[in-house]
Amino acid sequence: MKIKNVRHTGIVTDNLNRSLKFYRSLLGFKIKKQMLESGETTDAISNLNNTKVKTIKLTSPDNKSMIELLYYKSHLKKNKRKKYNISEIGISHMAFSVFNLKKTYKNMLKKRIKFICPPKVSADGNVLLTFCRAPEGTLIELVEELN
User: Fold this and answer.
1) Helix (H, G, I), strand (E, B), or coil: what is residue 132?
2) What CATH architecture applies to the domain 94-145?
3) Tens digits of pLDDT across the chain (147 residues)
4) Under CATH, which number does the domain 9-72 receive?
5) Which of 19, 46, 68, 117 has the greatest CB tally within 10 Å of its CB?
C-alpha cells in the first residue's frame, strides 16, 4: 500500500484570528474552506464528546500544500499552550520555501514574530534558513534555496 499524497497538516489554535493573520498575511496562504463541525462523526474521530470545532483549510500560494486550522470551541484549554522543543519526539516543525528569506525575515520581525536565530546558510551551502514560531506555538522553518 502507498499513500496518494499528503492532504494537509492540522494545527490547533487558541486564537483563530491571530493564526489566520500569520498564515494569510505573512505567509500568503488562502482560505479554501471553512466549517463548523460537530455531531457523531466529529465526536468519534476526535475521541471527544459534544465537540464543536471550527476548521479552516488554507492552501499555499502555489496551491500544492494545505494546512487546516482547528479551533475547538467546545474544548478550548486556555493557557495550556506548550512550545515544543525541536528535539522532542513526534512532528517537530513545518518547513516552507520562500523567495527572499532576508526580506521575509525583516518583514516578520517588524510584525513582532519571534525567531530562534537570524537566517543562516546550511552546512551544505544549498539553502538559507531560519526558524520562527507561529502564534499558536508551531515551529516554522523558512527556507530559501540558493542553488
Assistant:
1) strand
2) Roll (3.10)
3) 898 888 999 999 999 999 999 999 999 999 999 999 999 998 898 898 999 999 999 999 999 999 999 999 888 776 566 677 787 778 889 999 999 999 999 999 999 999 999 999 999 999 999 999 999 989 999 999 998
4) 3.10.180.10
5) 19
